[in-house]
Amino acid sequence: MAGATLTPSAERTEVRPKGAKATGRAPRHGQRWIGWLFAAPAIAVYTVFVLAPMVQTVRYSFYQWDGIGSSPWVGFANYVRVFTDPELVGTIVHAFELIVFFSGIPVLLGLAIAATIRRIATSRLAAVARAVLFIPQVIPLVAAGIAWTWLLSSDGLVNQLLSAIGLGGVTRAWLGDFATALPAVGVIGAWVLLGLCTLLLLAGMSKIDPALYEAGRLDGAGPLREFFSITVPNLRQEIGVCVTVTVIAALASFDIIYIATQGGPGNTTMVPGLEIYYRAFVERQVGVASALGVVLVVLVLVCVLPIQRLTREES
Amino acid sequence: MIVRGREAWTGRVFLVLLMVATIVPFVSLFLTALHPSGTYPAGLDWPSDPQWGNFLTAFNAAHMGELLTSSALIVLGVVPISLLVATMAGFAIGHLKMAGRRVVFLAFVLGLTLPFESIITPLYYQIRDMGLLNTRWAIILPLVGLFMPFGVFWMRAHFVTVPGEISEAAHIDGATSWQQFWRIQVPLAMPAISSLAILLFLWTWNQFLLAIVLVDDPTQRTMAGALGAFQGQWGTDIPLLCAGSLLVLTPTFVVFLIFQRRFAAALLQGSLKG
């Protein structure tokens, strides 16, 4: 990144004739500061509506506050609660369980699908598919949540299909059952993200040199071998992007769960985002909500930064 | 060749299955919406007497007219301001190479991963103190700020690729940085700006959390936020809820169909860069 920003300016100094250097430098030096005028509005709005609230979140997290009355300083007590209160720890555990569905299924299934349809990526069917697979990305997550709540309900299509293939015994209200609610919510997330991952991976595959596959074929590599020794290694960056996007979607999930289960039954689908919302605006525990907010930011960074490193370094 | 032919067929089958899985929830919504209001239809089932009137009922019950206006106003506030401010900052960081740009850029990039939930609590009190609670500004202003990391990131990526000679030439012609920005750089950046506009439109229209926290009146919210309220109110009347959901997702869907290629390209690039 740093290399990219340096190159153009280096070129510019080379191109400039010697005599112009002295006169050229003055406006350029000014330009470096004029830049601040151009950046000022963005910095201002970002500071007021993102950085300042973030600082406030950190500050609130050290107080006990109901949003109205006095607010005694409690040190790290709110953080201790986040990591000891079973309900709060539960939300973090759920968020990580959701990663399996939000990231695991879309990335693995997406890889398999993209590898299978790679050969027909330029056909007319693929063009139609490209549009169709984007639909879940375009509609509000709230609408996806409502549609799936209905599909997964006791009279819904999922149960209808299960009964049709003779699995009537396992039918249930998937989102209302303590054992299946979290996986069911995960399936909704997987549905939303699968199309995006498939298309990202497919776009990455189209950039792989076909000669690699030809060579593989000549060496007698089967489709599986081809997949693991050519496709996957060449897709590091795309896989990294898919994992990053989906992990953030899982850890910071809110819309789908708010609509589909409100965190229930019990607290089986409660996630940090929803817990923050309830604590801050329903139970009026602003301090605890803020501590969880800080923990969530850190969790996202801790998960995302290593992925970025792993996938970008070699490319 | 035989192997290829078989692979192509497996590919087609996979693709069709995937498309079916993507579309089925919408088909289910649609069929359910056609059933008589208040019934509990089973799965996929074409109603004997399709109730097309449900869409009209839902349109009125959800105050869809007001909602469309409200969402449009919010988009009209968020998108142009964000585009202008982000383009200027991208220009400053990517092209003018302002002093201290690394720190500024890093500060923006760190915001890319920020979950909105983490700042929603202080944002609520801040917006309240500004006297903006329950107005559309309560959604517009924070969203402009929250979109800055991505917007600046996106526009910087464009301006880094613009050759320095262009501004050199403008300098020789005596253009100020401001003139140069408007007359030369912005027209050149139009493809990047319009892709960003598409993404921001989509993210604003579908914004849910800010809408439900900062605005009580559903008719002052975004479409997605209003749907949340609609579910609370009509959640027990499944056909009506399904009809309402379809109505709410129609506008983005139509816009998507019109700008389909741009959308797809923007979303793919957007996630690649983000």
From TrEMBL, chain A:
It is found in: Cell membrane. Pfam families: BPD_transp_1 (PF00528). Keywords: Cell membrane, Membrane, Transmembrane, Transmembrane helix, Transport. Its main location: membrane. Residues 1-10 have a biased composition (Polar residues). GO terms for biological process: transmembrane transport. Residues 92-307 form the ABC transmembrane type-1 domain. The chain crosses the membrane at residues 33-55, 92-115, 127-151, 181-203, 239-260, 286-307. Residues 1-26 are annotated as: Disordered. Belongs to the binding-protein-dependent transport system permease family. This is Raffinose/stachyose/melibiose transport system permease protein. It comes from Kutzneria buriramensis. The lineage of its organism: Bacteria, Bacillati, Actinomycetota, Actinomycetes, Pseudonocardiales.
UniProtKB/TrEMBL annotation, chain B:
One of its GO terms (cellular component) is plasma membrane. Belongs to the binding-protein-dependent transport system permease family. Keywords: Cell membrane, Membrane, Transmembrane, Transmembrane helix, Transport. It is found in: Cell membrane. It comes from the Bacteria. One of its GO terms (biological process) is transmembrane transport. Residues 68-259 form the ABC transmembrane type-1 domain. The keyword Transport applies. This is Raffinose/stachyose/melibiose transport system permease protein. PROSITE patterns: ABC_TM1 (PS50928). It is a multi-pass membrane protein. The chain crosses the membrane at residues 12-34, 72-96, 103-125, 137-155, 186-205, 238-259.
